[in-house]
């Protein structure tokens, strides 16, 4: 429950060694429920760019009908992609429901939140799942430096933080075109503050600016392919955390060197250790646990499998009490696992039922699908999720949704043990037995404090 996707009637609970071993196995669940990688999704970006050019040209030429037709085609594309995005969300839930490697699903969502990136136009807004599939998921069990590089240089991240328009003040492009946007520090600031060293890390504004200048040139083509634009790059060397980068010819090389160095910094080790401990164990983790995980991060050079092993082996990770409150996505996904929801169950949902059962409740509970308010992602603190409105939405969902997800609801006496395992208390068992209907009984079990927490 704490390190996986919840209990299941069909799949065994796993110990620490098996959880880690699963990460080394082929990603079979991703093959069963495939999500399009961003490299394929890019064809939509190219098509949208072509339509925008058509609209602009048609307007200049006074061809109003053609401009309107292209605009309508662009809107239709956005709606089609939004429907595809909902399908990818369902596949993500099915991965959680049926995976034999639950830690991978948890880590994929953890790192996707850590490296939050989302689209800011109708075409890019549906690119988050492809970004996770391409940049995050393949790297959850590798080196942190590789994960950092894959996320930070990804076209969706460059789009989200406006990096693709960042221009070095003394670059060739800046000298040729006065109307360019200038230097943008968003990506550099978030890399240091959120992704690596932490908000209290050992950096200053000069480090942010120098890193921002080093990042100039990071961009992508209209088809979503990464590109380094030498004409946008600030010439000369930049000094970040006391190290000089880019003294020779500019390009992606100095950026990779800087990201690798920052990834290996002791402050990064501690920040990542703290975030993992907070996410998986407690809002206020034992300092000894954080120290232990940070030390393993440093000694292993950011080998994430060893970092996870340090987290799993420490006694502070295995307190008897249930831990953090599940965010809304985790609550819905772990409920699907407890109910053993299948792809056939999902296919029976009409579009309206899907929205009412799986999409709208996320927003009502406070976590609209893939729409965190900022680059820092979703809050970890329990109080962010246990609000009057959020709690009411959780209770309503627990009672009403299971009958749509799994029309043949399980017998409550068995389900209380399936869903809660050793955390099934006698009051919950009694409430399930005394409920007026099977639907009410299942709702009471999913509403119990033991199920609402990890």
Structure explained in plain terms:
This protein has 454 residues and is an all-alpha fold. It has four domains: 127 residues, no CATH class; 105 residues, no CATH class; 53 residues; 125 residues, no CATH class. Helices cover 58% and strands 3% of the residues. The protein is built from 24 helices and four strands. The strands form two sheets. A two-stranded antiparallel sheet has the order 1-2. A two-stranded antiparallel sheet has the order 3-4. Helix 3 runs antiparallel to helix 4, helix 3 crosses helix 6 and helix 22 packs antiparallel against helix 23. The radius of gyration is 24 Å and the shape is globular. The N and C termini lie close together (5 Å).
Task: List how many beta strands DSSP finds.
Answer: 4
Mean pLDDT: 95
Q: Overall 3D geometry? A: globular
What strand order characterises the main sheet? Answer: 1-2
As a percent range, the share of strand residues is under 5%
How many domains would you count in the coordinates? 4
Largest sheet, in brief, is: 2 strands, antiparallel
Number of helices, counting only DSSP H or I runs of 4 residues or more: 24
Distance between the termini: 5 Å
Low-pLDDT residue intervals, each spanning 5 or more residues: none
Sequence of secondary-structure elements: HHHHHHHHHHHEEEEHHHHHHHHHHHHH
**Structure classification:** mainly alpha
**Taking Cα atoms only, what radius of gyration do you get, to the nearest Å?**
24 Å
